[in-house]
Fold this sequence. Notes:
The strands form three sheets. Strands 1, 2, 3, 4, 5, 6 and 7 form a seven-stranded antiparallel beta sheet that branches. This protein is elongated. The protein folds into two domains: 191 residues, Beta-Lactamase; 224 residues, Phosphatase 2c, domain 1 (4-Layer Sandwich). The chain has ten helices and 17 strands. The protein starts with a helix and ends with a strand. α1 packs parallel to α5 and α9 packs antiparallel against α10. By secondary structure, it is an alpha+beta fold.
Amino acid sequence: MSEIGLSRCSRLESCVLWRILDATRHLAAPMGVDEILQKSIAAALQFFDAERSSVFLYDAKTNELYIKVATSANESEAGPHIGYDSDSPDRGSLSRIIRFPADRGIAGETAQTRRLINVPDCYADPRFNRDVDRETGYITRCLLSVPLLGVDQALVGVMQVLNKREGPFTAEDEKIATIMAAHCAVVLQKAMLLDEYVLKQKMQRDLALAREIQLSSLPQELPALTGYELAAWSMPADETGGDIYDAISLGEQRVALLMADATGHGIGPALSVSQFRAMFRMGLLLGSNLGELMSKINFQLKADLPSGRFITAFAGILDISEHKIHYHSGGQAPLMHYHAGEDRVEWLAASALPMGILPHAPMIPPPPIYMQPGDIFALISDGFFEYCDHKGEQFGKERIEELIRANPRGPLEDLRENLCSGVKEFAAGSPQEDDMTIVLARRNLP
């Protein structure tokens, strides 16, 4: 090659290099993932004089590649703003997400092999995944597919440049694309990690607020009943829990007792039991009898809860005029009745199916619990019984029974604390895996 040719080549390479450096300089500015994607695509279109460019982001949890594409108003599925193509709308416009396995098509092969792929004729290549074309109505003629590899060669996604106007992509294009992809990947990875951190912090704040709201919804003071004593406590396993309790005064001689436990723990179950409590309170205000109220709540829960979800719940009314607890227990068991006169603990089974399984589950009232002087009735959630130590042994009913029989006549709050500390000592540092709730009622001795 002549000196003139070498000079021209050098000037060309220098020009390209400066353009790449200028593009990466803009990408290094503080931006969110959306803006980085848009600028990366704009730079690729300019460099290669291509019709279109796409960035598929990688979801390691599902091993999928995904991209956001434009939709018309009646087609919108309004997905999250992550993943772009050059036809994606500006902010405020409608979009949807296309996902596919990360081993499918040319983008999938690029992700799997971590190597650039240059395809001069897409529809002649059996690896080409036509789904995106089919979804968007766009026809891809040729493409350049480049892996986006971040720090430690972690896969961030795949960038593709489509339909170069001058014909198939060249070896020179491959070099430029490789350099661009390296810069884009690191910047994207950093922005995605930052977004994830910000989202996590927001979620933690939201969960803390949800926990505060849930705990504040519990009774701050338990109703006072002549000749009786009440105590209650709850501790969720996560920021929010699937357990809830309530004690609702129904005049001077009656109090409604409630304990509900939704399957699982976290935000979803917390919402379910909060809904249960709200319906229960509203039904009492409207004067529904206990059986009718539980039947209606069960019917509504069946309609509202996701498939496979249910709530175990005890709802009873303690009437001190007759010293009886009339109740229904939808799957909540075992129920504990300590007979003081006999120094004996009786464990009672549930009286009905868990709530939300069958829409018309029968609510046949069981015999009432008769409270003799000194008797204790206890609602205790699975979190107590099934708390395991490091060996996997459960706390169980027997230990609860021993603690109750050890000092049944002291202040009821002391008994509640003894039960909680007994579980803690037994666990010896083993983590709490389930929500823990307890409600105690005792008829005092004369």
